[in-house]
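Structure (tokenized):
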């Protein structure tokens, strides 16, 4: 009976831990959607495909093949999101990410990603208050290490995605 109780308890703890990890991941994904990170990488993928289409122009790759390959964009961005979650996990608590999302949901948070001239005095004050908070201080204090982590993630992800598309083209008989 003790073994059964221990097993059930272990399973409950595992499920609770998984649920918290999943909730953290979802909060980070919300955050990187709100702060423009995913939008930036969507543009990177689009530019990569434009470059590949130019590089493979002499191969006369049909539009249907390009459409099929572009269908991998969503999965690749999801993979990138998971990599970014790892970087966030090393720097920010779940509550920190929730605080970021709360900021990004405000008028000031939305305006901070637009041209600087769009910030009102009220927006500037709200941002000052946020960046003086514990979460704001973590963001400021971890900027260099986060930039380094994001740079490595970006390089690895873009290289791997480019290679996978080139391999898929090669499998279909299109080579440079």
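Design, position by position:
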């Amino acid at each position: 009976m003790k073994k059964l109780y221990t097993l059930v308890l272990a399973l409950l703890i595992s499920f609770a831990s998984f649920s918290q990890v999943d909730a953290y991941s979802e909060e980070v994904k919300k955050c990187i959607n709100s702060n423009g990170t995913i939008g930036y990488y969507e543009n990177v993928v689009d530019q990569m495909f434009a470059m590949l289409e130019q590089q493979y122009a002499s191969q006369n790759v049909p539009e249907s093949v390009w459409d099929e390959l572009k269908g991998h964009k969503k999965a690749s961005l999801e993979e990138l999101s998971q990599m970014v979650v790892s970087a966030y996990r090393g720097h920010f608590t779940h509550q920190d990410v929730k605080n970021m999302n709360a900021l990004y949901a405000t008028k000031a948070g939305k305006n901070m990603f637009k041209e600087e001239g769009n910030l009102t005095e009220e927006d500037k004050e709200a941002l000052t208050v946020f960046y003086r908070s514990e979460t704001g201080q973590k963001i400021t204090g971890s900027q260099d290490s986060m930039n380094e982590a994001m740079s490595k993630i970006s390089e690895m992800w873009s290289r791997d995605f480019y290679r996978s598309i080139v391999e898929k083209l090669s499998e279909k008989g299109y080579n440079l």
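Reviewer-requested clarification: Residues 2-34 form the longest helix (33 residues). The chain has nine helices and no strands.
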